[in-house]
Amino acid sequence: GDAIFIRTPTGSQVLIDGGPDASLVLSRLGRRIPFWDRTIDGIVLTHPDLDHLTGLLGVLERYQVQTIIYRHLPSDSSAYAHWQELLQSEGATVHQAEAGQHVVLDRGLELNVLHPGPELPAGEAATTNNASVVMRLTYGSVSILLPGDIEAVVEQQLLREGAPLASTALKVAHHGSCSSTSEEFLRAVDPTLAVISVGENDFGHPCEDVLARLGDIPVYRTDNHGAVELISDGTQVWVDPKR
Questions:
Q1: How far, rounded to the nearest angstrom, does the alpha carbon of residue 19 sit from its chain's CA centroid?
Q2: How far apart, in whole angstroms, are the C-alpha atoms of residue 142 and residue 7?
Q3: Looking at domain 1-96, what is its CATH homologous superfamily?
Q4: Which of 61, 75, 202, 240 is close enough to 229 for a disulfide, judged by CB 3.0 to 4.6 Å?
Q5: What is the pLDDT of residue 200?
């Protein structure tokens, strides 16, 4: 699963996805957020697959959240129904994610939504993965591309649209699945480092072909390196793996 915590220079706190385990994400947040602070400025749900959604349910139950960004998608899971109930009771400002949105997190620090557009992917591409909220985080001259679980068909769409993909760091899409991180997309992003959020799984993630395409790019994997922290002053990035 994915869970990405952002702390800005002035202390704003944003969580993108919550992973598959509420107790784990709450434990990790407890190391980052003072015990007396029960507020989170923003939450983003990229898509309602359980390995991204489940942890957010526990977060919404424990923390007061000011702003929530997600794209409503059809889902018959009980977890997504609970998510909808929590949105009603949380009292947060809720925005439907759409390409072109700019969220200012701090001075010089922005989240820009690149996907989905007004219309969700259709036909064979009509999956929750391909409807993932894709974002690019920029801070000064540093940028991080956060593509959720999109597959190559959406990568090609972003290339056709001329989306601003070039980034300092790449969170590899869909846990390193063979269906993502195509060569053309990777050339457009041209990252200096990559992070793969992955644990034990039955899907063969990360795919050997994806690792081969990443080539000489330094790759940090959460299954090998534990939580991976990126620290930036807006001009460069330092990586602090926790294992």
A1: 10
A2: 15
A3: Ribonuclease Z/Hydroxyacylglutathione hydrolase-like (3.60.15.10)
A4: 240
A5: 83
* CA distances to 25, 39, 52, 58, 190 from 11, in Å: 19, 11, 24, 22, 30
Spell out the domain ranges in the chain. Answer: 1-96, 98-243
| Integer Cα distance of 203 and 169 in angstroms | 24
CATH 3.60.15.10 fits 98-243, yes or no: yes
pLDDT in tens, 160-207: 999 999 999 999 999 999 999 999 999 999 999 999 999 888 888 899
**How far apart are the C-alpha atoms of 81 and 12, rounded to whole Å?**
28
Instruction: Characterize 147-178 residue by residue with b for buried, 16 or more Cβ atoms within 10 angstroms of its Cβ, and e for exposed.
Output: bbbbbbbbbebbeeeebebebbbbbbbbbbbb
Euclidean distance between CA atoms 85 and 88, whole angstroms: 5
The pLDDT tens digits for 102-135 are 999 999 999 999 999 999 988 888 899 999 999 9
Residue 55 contacts residue 18 (beta carbons within 8 Å): yes
Residues 6+ apart with CB under 8 A from 234: 108, 109, 139, 140, 141, 142
| Helix runs in the chain, H state only | 22-32, 50-62, 78-90, 152-161, 183-189, 208-214, 222-225
